[in-house]
Amino acid sequence: ADGIPALGIVAAVLGVIKTMASISEPPEVLGKLIGSALVGTFLGVWLAYGFVGPLAGAITARTDSEVKYYKVIKTAIVAFLGGAAPQVAVEFARKTLEHEVQPSFLEVEEATNNAPAI
User: Fold this and answer.
1) How much is the pTM?
2) Residue 103 counted as domain residue
3) Number of structural domains in the chain
4) C-alpha span between 8 and 17 (Å, rounded)
5) Cα(54)–Cα(48) distance, rounded to whole angstroms?
6) Is there a contact between 48 and 4 (Cβ–Cβ < 8 Å)?
7) Are 64 and 85 in contact (CB under 8 A)?
8) What is the mean pLDDT of the chain?
9) 94 lies in a domain?
């Protein structure tokens, strides 16, 4: 997304080159050519900051939340495979959560005690 304004600048430069090739034309024609060069610049900036940038941010936020989910699972599995008791492995996983979504110790204890046996 950060490189898209550069495409707008390239469009502007190409528009200026095209304008310079038609420098002997009347001002009405030159005005249209210069206008098209400016439209290329505007389009590049608009696409970068109005469309692609926000879309990339939304995709990043969504994938980050999924990565955090799998990181919690990985932490619990690694702790358990490292020899920790299941309750301790769950506590390791709980500690990796952000405070906004992290359940309290008592909530986790209650959920694990009420879980059906496998």
Assistant:
1) 0.54
2) yes
3) 1
4) 14
5) 9
6) yes
7) no
8) 88
9) yes
Q: Which amino acid is residue 21, in one-letter code?
A: A
Enter the tokens of residue 82: 């490292």
Per the CB < 8 A criterion, the answer to whether 75 and 92 are in contact is: yes
**Domain coverage including residue 41:** 4-113
Q: Do residues 97 and 72 make contact, with C-beta atoms less than 8 angstroms apart?
A: yes
- What was the pLDDT predicted at 1? 61
DSSP assignment of 81-93: HTT--HHHHHHHH
Mean pLDDT of the 22-38 span: 88
Of the candidates 36, 32, 30, the one whose C-alpha atom is nearest the C-alpha of residue 13 is: 36
**pLDDT (tens digit per residue) in 84-115:** 998 899 999 999 998 888 999 899 888 888 88
CB atoms within 10 A of CB 37: 20
Which residues, including other chains, have CB under 8 Å from residue 2's CB and lie 6 or more apart?
48
Amino acid in the structure at residue 54:
P
The string of pLDDT tens digits covering residues 44-60 is: 888 888 888 899 999 99
Distance CA 17, CA 10 (A): 10
